[in-house]
């Protein structure tokens, strides 16, 4: 499923919808170039979960945990790591809920992961400057691909939102 994201608000809205529908243990793997909107999407997810604390990029901290919402949010950013450094982080403890309360795991720069969970939602954010432009701005879009996870409810909510905003 591809969704057109004309502005920052649209990225936030998509995140909010996800944050309202996701269930414990859901993993969102975010891919996309520098500045594509990955952190913005996670800020929306946080809002949808009911987190009021500002969600900031974990580029330097690697992981930020937010526990005030409907479910805990574990926000990771692998940008500064080499793929061979990733296994030592023991990321699976987050999605398996081992020694951490099961929640939502959102990982920026998931391209860096040498292995992935058994089930996850891949969200790839892209922008193009040539050809596809909207009001002189690059065309931004999100492509959502579920891997081994049922997202009928999420897709229905996204479609509902899109229709309501038409
Ligand atoms: N759909 C959109 N249209 C226009 N601007 C957007 C959109 N989504 C996000 N932005 C803007 O793009 C900028 C970068 O966003 P963001 O920090 O979320 O990107 P990122 O993918 O997390 O970057 P990084 O690779 O550095 O982690 C922000 O100023 C944000 O407001
Ligand atoms: Mg970011």
From TrEMBL:
Keywords: ATP-binding, Cytoplasm, Magnesium, Metal-binding, Nucleotide-binding, tRNA processing
GO biological process: tRNA threonylcarbamoyladenosine modification
Keyword Nucleotide-binding attached: yes
Protein's UniProt keywords contain tRNA processing: yes
Main location (coarse class): cytoplasm
GO molecular function per UniProt: ATP binding; metal ion binding
Entry-linked Pfam families: TsaE
UniProt cross-references to InterPro entries, sorted A to Z: P-loop_NTPase (IPR027417), T6A_TsaE (IPR003442)
GO CC terms in record: cytoplasm
Cellular location(s): Cytoplasm
Assigned protein family: Belongs to the TsaE family.
Name of the molecule in the record: tRNA threonylcarbamoyladenosine biosynthesis protein TsaE
Organism (species): Desmonostoc muscorum LEGE 12446
Gene encoding the protein: tsaE
């Amino acid at each position: 499923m591809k969704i057109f994201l004309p502005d920052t608000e649209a990225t936030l809205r998509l995140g909010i919808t996800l944050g309202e529908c996701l269930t414990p243990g859901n993993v969102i793997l975010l891919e996309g170039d520098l500045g594509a909107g990955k952190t913005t999407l996670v800020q929306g997810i946080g809002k949808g979960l009911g987190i009021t604390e500002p969600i900031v990029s974990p580029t330097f901290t690697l992981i930020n945990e937010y526990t005030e919402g409907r479910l805990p949010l574990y926000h990771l950013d692998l940008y500064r790591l080499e793929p061979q450094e990733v296994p030592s982080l023991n990321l699976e403890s987050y999605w398996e809920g081992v020694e951490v309360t099961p929640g939502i795991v959102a990982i920026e720069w998931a391209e860096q992961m040498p292995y992935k969970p058994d089930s996850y939602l891949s969200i790839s954010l892209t922008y193009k400057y040539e050809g596809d432009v909207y009001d002189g701005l690059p065309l931004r879009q999100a492509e959502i691909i579920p891997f081994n996870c049922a997202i009928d409810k999420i897709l229905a909510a996204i479609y509902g939102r899109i229709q309501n905003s038409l």
